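[Meeting: bench + compute handoff]

Bench side (C.D.) handed over the final construct sequence. Compute side (W.E.) agreed to return the predicted structure before the next meeting so the bench team could plan truncations. Sequence as handed over:
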Amino acid sequence: MKKKKNPKFAIGVGCQGDWKQQKKHKVKSTTVMQTVYENGKPVTYKESFETFDKNGNSTVVIEYAQDGTILKKETALYDNNQNVTEKTFFDSKKKKEYKITYKYSVMKDKTPLVEESEFDAAGGLVQKTSYTYSSSGKKASETTTDANGTVTGKTLFIYNSRNLKTHKQSFNKSLRILHS
């Protein structure tokens, strides 16, 4: 018999995914339960679990299979400006675990992302993406390099006199235009 899913319901206060509500109500975690019908009988299991820091930022998200095994897990760390500085990912189906770190710069009361680095499960650098910005704070370019520092891709962003993005040029590792 085909499984039918019922609407999801959350145990706890707040609205999952809404950091303002999480902070307002001082929610520390939420659990989402899922009910499916098998052979006409309801079967309820934990679908996901999420924790939050004192600012309402999501710090841990775990997705579960019906048998209780972990499908995916994501953790996050934040700086004093509420920018995510590190995320770790685990995907049991793909058997992949990795980490991404983020670095920011202060620019006219903004903290734009300037570097994103991906690491494998052993801590080895996989790739790094660097971002540059124009004097008006718009993203001007992003350059991706491999673990050896070799450029694997580059994108340039072009803006008009009203500071609206009008063009995007992408280049491959040979710095040949992929699309413009």
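W.E. noted at the follow-up: The domain at 95-180 is CATH 2.40.128 (Lipocalin). C.D. will use this when planning the next construct.
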